[in-house]
Design a protein that fits this description.
Shape: globular
Largest sheet: 8 strands, mixed
Number of helices: 16
CATH class of the largest domain: Alpha Beta
Strand order of the largest sheet: 9-8-7-10-6-11-12-13
Oligomer: single chain
Number of domains: 3
CATH architecture of the largest domain: 3-Layer(aba) Sandwich
């Protein structure tokens, strides 16, 4: 399309000296100058580490025929200056890809924890119902049997609209996506209108970006305030909220009868009637406005019951029957890196979990604490170049609920791993002053205690070697991730692979 067609209705100021009739043909839309192709429009946005305005010249040299920016730049190309380049990128992407989101039934899931699991559950329920569904989230994005790496939870707006276009072209009718607070704050979902929006919970996270919990909460609310379709006769309910969370109750009160309130522990529209849990999963009966359903899921713990209730609410809002929902939940498997059981552990219960935030770590540890028949060993660390305030908090959580805490590294990035560990240890020592060395771990050790092992592989070896039959090992923080970032270098590292290698080595040794 022509540049004038692409930017029609976009408020801005043309600031180049070309004749007003200059109207280049547009072949691509880019915000990364390295990906510019001849005929592209380059949108200069300010990123977290670099400013796109610095690369306008590079973009034009690579063939960009027009530039959209928020500051004056001097280049040999048609140039449009706008107030908000991120918002402009989103609007341009919607138009360039012919508004694919409007052709999809969109489900958005936001909250601090549980987003990934809810999207997996909804995906499986919709697949069971025969619906062509795609998913965009932290682990990957996928549709029609295709799976792609996804570097961020919610892609940049241009990438997001391109994915939607691919989904529509492959016959997908429903898209389920995790919507992060960053995405809402940075206009990545501008132009998207969701058929159903889900709120899971809100707890301490991302304060390195949002600075305060109030700012964080305000960003989350944008999904419901700015991106939600109004209710109608066919879809009376558009909102699903966790009523066990105080912020969820606030949303539920605001939306009234147009919201389903889930409650694992209180009164709600969707609630458990009779539930049993163990380390093999969750079974029981759930009451809903459409009738009861019997659930049988391999997911573990109270917080996964909350996720099941949220997914049930989405399915009901989309008009699915309880029996279909129950079949979908039953067909589900463990979500990668979300209390994922390493079955090779035999009588030792070994789990890998993505819990890298205080609330998520506490949920995982307390869940396993209640269900494990033996001792609980937790391996964890905190990422570098991220919110430093959570480090002692997570240390205290692990030490309070574990028999043995093994403090290690978790993507230290540019920071000194020992400095991160020292901050974690300050929290551990609030509740546990018994520090051991690796040699202190005999078969009959008793906690509570902790030890420090900066090498993550060695820490996992220590934890699994220390576990006896009926003990539980939680390897927390990285979950599905297959890398470790150390001093700017990214290396392959998968907690699940390492755990299986350790277990296989024990079998070879006759352990």
């Amino acid at each position: 399309m022509k540049f004038s067609e692409l930017t029609d209705g976009l408020m801005g100021e043309r600031i180049d000296d070309r004749p007003s009739g200059t109207d280049p043909e547009v072949t691509a839309l880019c915000y990364d100058s390295r990906k510019v192709v001849p005929g592209a429009v380059f949108v200069a946005i300010e990123g977290f580490s670099v400013d796109g305005h610095r690369f306008v010249g590079d973009a034009v040299a690579r063939g960009a025929v027009a530039v959209v920016c928020s500051r004056t730049v001097a280049v040999d190309a048609v140039t449009l200056r706008v107030d908000d380049a991120r918002e402009a990128l989103a609007r341009l992407a919607c138009r360039f890809y012919a508004y694919p989101a409007h052709q999809l039934t969109l489900v958005g899931v936001t909250g601090t924890s549980g987003k990934t699991t809810v999207t997996y559950l909804v995906e499986r329920i919709l697949e069971t119902a025969g619906v062509a569904v795609g998913v965009i989230g932290t682990i990957n994005y996928r549709y029609a049997g295709k799976v792609f790496a996804n570097p961020v939870t919610t892609p940049e707006s241009a990438d997001l609209q391109a994915i939607f276009r691919q989904m529509v072209d492959h016959g997908i009718t429903h898209a389920v996506m995790e919507v992060s607070s960053h995405a809402l704050d940075l206009s990545r979902v501008a132009g998207c209108v969701f058929d159903v929006a889900v709120f899971t919970n809100l707890s301490h996270d991302h304060l390195d970006y949002h600075e305060t919990m109030q700012n964080y909460w305000q960003s989350k609310q944008k999904l419901f305030e700015c991106h939600l379709k109004p209710s109608d006769d066919r879809h009376a309910v558009r909102v699903v909220v966790n009523g066990d969370d105080a912020h969820g109750r606030e949303l539920a009160d605001r939306f009234g009868s147009t919201a389903y309130r889930t409650a694992a522990r209180g009164t709600g529209d969707i609630r458990p009637e009779k539930i049993s849990m163990d380390l093999a999963g969750i079974r029981g009966r759930v009451a809903t406005p459409a009738g009861t359903l019997d659930i049988d899921s391999p997911l573990v713990g109270d917080f996964n019951l909350e996720n099941i209730l949220s997914a049930t609410g989405v399915a009901l809002a989309l008009g699915l029957a309880p029996v279909v929902i129950a079949d979908g939940i039953r067909a589900g498997t463990c979500v990668p890196g979300r209390l994922e059981r390493i079955r090779e552990g035999g009588e030792r219960f070994i789990f890998v979990d993505y819990s890298h935030k205080p609330d998520a770590l506490e949920n995982a540890i307390t869940t396993l604490r209640r269900l494990t028949p033996g001792r609980l060993i937790t391996v964890f660390g905190c990422g570098g170049d991220r919110d430093r305030t959570k480090r002692p908090v997570m240390g205290e959580i692990a030490a309070r609920h574990s028999d043995l805490s093994v403090i290690t590294s978790d993507n230290p990035r540019s920071e000194d791993p020992l400095g991160i560990i020292e901050a974690i240890e300050a929290g551990v020592r609030r509740v546990c002053r018994r520090r051991w060395n690796a040699g202190d771990l005999g078969a009959s050790w008793t906690g509570p205690a902790y030890l420090v092992e900066p090498d993550r592989r060695a820490a996992i070896v220590l934890a699994i070697d220390a576990a006896q039959p009926h003990d539980t090992v939680l390897i927390a923080g990285k979950g599905h991730e297959t890398y470790q970032i150390l001093a700017g270098e990214t290396i392959h590292f998968d907690d699940r692979e390492v755990a299986r290698e350790v277990l296989a080595a024990q079998v070879r040794k006759g352990a």
